[in-house]
Amino acid sequence: MVSHAEWKLARDRKVAESLSEGEDGAESAERVRRRQELDLAWDLGQAVYDRRTELGIAQTELARRARMTQPQVSKLELGGTMPTVPLLARLARAMDSTFSMELDGDTMRVAFTAHAGSGASEPDGGAPDAGADGGAVGAGTDGGAVAEAAGARAAHG
After folding, report:
1. Core-most of 35, 55, 126, 153, by most CB within 10 Å?
2. Under 8 Å CB-to-CB from 131, ≥6 apart: which residues?
3. Least confident window among 8-17, 24-33, 96-105
4. Cβ atoms of 66 and 90 closer than 8 Å
5. Nearest partner of 57 among 144, 146, 139, 145, judged by Cα
6. Element holding 8 (H helix, E strand)
7. For position 21, what pLDDT does the model report?
8. Which of 78, 91, 2 is nearest to 51 (CA)?
């Protein structure tokens, strides 16, 4: 089985190749927008993966807690989907975390920060979010660790 990091590297290479096709030198505004969107989806997925593994729970357990399916969690963690706000809220509750997003010029930060004293214990249930869909998105690491999107993307190919 391919590791999360290996899959991401292969995906980044494929995306870079498709984005570099076409115009010589200058990127179109649409390509820049699409690259930023892909970076954010990846960062959100990485944050979910990091927090889930920090909690020591499987994708199936996170899916159960967040009222998703395991394939939806997998796709989210691999950066294959952009989550909705209601889904981000469900994921934060499911991982006993606070979700934050900061925008500063070309830099975007997303984080799922563990609540004080949180562990792998199951969070409170609750009524489904109004208008929540089955889409997927991210969370992060304990202590406010942050995944940065756009701007400095040295590790992204």
Report:
1. 55
2. 86
3. 8-17
4. yes
5. 139
6. helix 4-20
7. 53
8. 91
